[in-house]
């Protein structure tokens, strides 16, 4: 087995910093996982959340037929499942190779998050859904701050 690098040495300044930022990333992923669970397991609560984000009110601004409501709940559940899967990968990366200082793990988290943020936020802006722009920005900051702060440890 090859010797540990300076980033991997337990107790080193780099190892301590990466452990800290790993914890922040895992906490951010936990927040997203909680929202994902709401979308999948408590659809009416998830709808209320998204109505607040999209329309700044806790209910739909127009009556929603039962058939469409069923589809919306299904689609929101699928969105929740995709988000949950993505966050499980983020947590696994943060706990292992990120904490160990493996550069590819930082990149495997950062680039998809940047891609999601740019695409989702541009789409939201194009459709005038400013609440989602704010939600994306808050979520982006939860991940972006620890990723940017930890970048110098991945040389």
Throw out a few tags for this protein.
mainly alpha, 5 helices, elongated
What would you say this structure looks like, in words?
The protein has helices at residues 13-41, 43-55, 66-98, 103-126, 130-150. With 155 residues, the protein is mainly α. It has one domain.
Helix/strand layout:
Elements: H1 13-41, H2 43-55, H3 66-98, H4 103-126, H5 130-150
Helix pairs in contact: 1-2, 1-3, 1-5, 2-5, 3-4, 4-5
How many helices? The count is 5
Helix content range of the residues, please?
over 70%
As a whole number of angstroms, the C-alpha radius of gyration is 18 Å
Q: How many domains, as an integer?
A: 1
Tell me what portion of residues adopts beta-strand conformation: under 5%
Choose one word for the global shape: elongated
Describe, in short, the structure shown.
By secondary structure, the chain is mainly alpha-helical. The chain is elongated, with a radius of gyration of 18 Å.
